[in-house]
Amino acid sequence: MNIDIQRHKNILEAELKRLEAEILEVAEKESDLTWEAKQTEDGTTTEREDVAESMENYESNFSITSTLEKEIVDIKNALDKIDANTYGLCEVCQAEIEEGRLNAKPDARTCELHMN
Ligand SMILES: [Zn+2]
């Protein structure tokens, strides 16, 4: 394999840092791989409009959290593979993932043939 793993590792680590900072704006960390969406800034309000608004906030926090969480899991998975020396191999056929695909998506789990 002639891909530059160190370069991909740097990209993945920077991306992980960015995503973890981003997710903390909308969620509390539960464990290494799970986050819990924040309810609201102020959960004691009884005004109807405020309740509706905080429900909306929660729903939007929740959907942002699940998207970011999924990205974080994929990136950690890729970093684990770097440590295990299996980075850049397709999870389906074990062939080397195309270099162009890894450049575009450093946390790709499969080759182009098995991407769907
Ligand atoms: Zn494959």
What labels describe this entry?
116 residues, mainly alpha, elongated, binds zinc ion
Describe this structure in words.
This protein has one domain (5-87). Strands 1-2 form a two-stranded antiparallel sheet. It has helices spanning 5-23, 48-83, 99-104; strands spanning 27-31, 34-37. 53% of the residues lie in helices and 8% in strands. With 116 residues, the chain is mainly α. Helix 1 packs antiparallel against helix 2 (48-83). The site of zinc ion has 8 residues, from loops.
Class inferred from helices and paired strands: mainly alpha
Helix content: 40-55%
Element-level helix/strand string: HEEHH
Helical run tally: 3
What is the gyration radius calculated from CA atoms? 18 Å
What composes the largest sheet? 2 strands, antiparallel
Topology:
Elements: H1 5-23, E1 27-31, E2 34-37, H2 48-83, H3 99-104
Antiparallel strand pairs: 1-2
Helix pairs in contact: 1-2
Bound molecules: zinc ion.
Zinc ion (ZN) is lined by residues 90, 92-93, 95, 110-111, 113-114.
How would you briefly describe this protein structure?
With about 120 residues, the chain is mainly alpha-helical. The chain is about 55% helix and about 10% strand.
